[in-house]
């Protein structure tokens, strides 16, 4: 194992219901890491993009936040596990998201949490090499032609247990078809379309294409329920 303890920049840590993808409805601990250079114009977590030393706070200050801010706390895997216990979280499913969590080596975190009985899922754009435990459930949400200029990696597409693609227009479906041809996923990978920002026309399009292709619909349930 890597002898150097990995430090993780944590924007948020909370317990809720997974609102997206295959595990929709599952109680889960969300660990949101700070930093993302991809730049999706419609991103719903833009406060996680920049990592500023000025915004570094203590773990207790990070936990006490009542709104979405760029404040983050630096924590090790062992400190995170301790916080899970301190917060009396019940969930055994841990979703690592961000920001772009694949910018970090998540193996130490995965090993520590799996040893304590947790199951991990990562939400990633598929633009960074994945450093994960073998058992981590990988949700790749491909980002094509975004301002940051990052490319979706074929190895991420192959590792994905699920491909969860944000859509609003037909051109997005065409771009996904092209990606699936260039970078084929595993035969058993689940494919889901996620309407961008609950827009009615995006939702109609996603429903139509899911029925035609026998794909899943992922609607960001938490936004309909007004929960985190
Ligand atoms: C905020 S991202 C963080 C993880 C990683 N950077 C990624 O993009 O997968 C978490 C999920 O939210 C999705 N997402 C972000 N903004 C959205 C929006 N406005 N509407 C629908 N899905 C959105 C992303 O595509 C991704 O599946
Ligand atoms: N409830 C809930 N489910 C989610 N699934 C993926 C999320 C994310 O931001 O990655 C998310 C989120 O922010 N909240
Ligand atoms: S890759 Fe994820 S966190 Fe980064 S801008 Fe896009 S949706 Fe937001
Ligand atoms: Mg979210």
Automatic annotation (TrEMBL):
Keyword Metal-binding: yes
Biological-process GO terms, alphabetical: tRNA queuosine(34) biosynthetic process
Binding-site residues for S-adenosyl-L-methionine, renumbered to this chain: 42-44, 99, 141-143
Domain of life: Bacteria
Quaternary state and interactors: Homodimer.
Family (UniProt): Belongs to the radical SAM superfamily. 7-carboxy-7-deazaguanine synthase family.
Stated role: Catalyzes the complex heterocyclic radical-mediated conversion of 6-carboxy-5,6,7,8-tetrahydropterin (CPH4) to 7-carboxy-7-deazaguanine (CDG), a step common to the biosynthetic pathways of all 7-deazapurine-containing compounds.
Stated name of the protein: 7-carboxy-7-deazaguanine synthase
Taxonomic source organism: Pseudidiomarina piscicola
Gene this protein is translated from: queE
């Amino acid at each position: 194992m890597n002898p150097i303890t990995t430090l993780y920049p944590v924007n948020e840590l909370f317990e809720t219901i997974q609102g997206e993808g295959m595990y929709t409805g599952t109680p889960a601990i969300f660990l949101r890491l700070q930093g993302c250079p991809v730049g999706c114009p419609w991103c719903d977590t833009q406060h996680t993009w920049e990592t500023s030393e000025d915004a570094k706070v203590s773990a207790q200050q990070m936990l006490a936040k009542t709104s979405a801010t760029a404040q983050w706390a630096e924590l090790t895997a062992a400190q995170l596990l301790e916080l899970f216990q301190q917060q009396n979280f019940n969930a055994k499913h841990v979703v690592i998201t961000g920001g772009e969590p694949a910018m970090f080596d998540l193996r130490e975190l995965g090993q520590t949490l799996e040893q304590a009985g947790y199951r991990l899922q990562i939400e990633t754009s598929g633009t960074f090499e994945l450093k994960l435990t073998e058992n981590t459930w990988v949700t790749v949400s491909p980002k094509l032609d975004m301002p940051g200029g990052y490319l979706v990696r074929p190895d991420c597409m192959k590792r994905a247990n699920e491909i969860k693609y944000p859509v609003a227009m037909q051109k997005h479906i065409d771009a996904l078809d092209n990606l699936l041809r260039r970078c084929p996923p595993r035969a058993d990978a689940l494919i889901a379309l996620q309407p961008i920002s609950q827009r009615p026309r995006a939702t109609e399009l996603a429903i139509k294409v899911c029925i035609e292709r026998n794909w899943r619909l992922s609607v960001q349930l938490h936004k309909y329920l007004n929960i985190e």
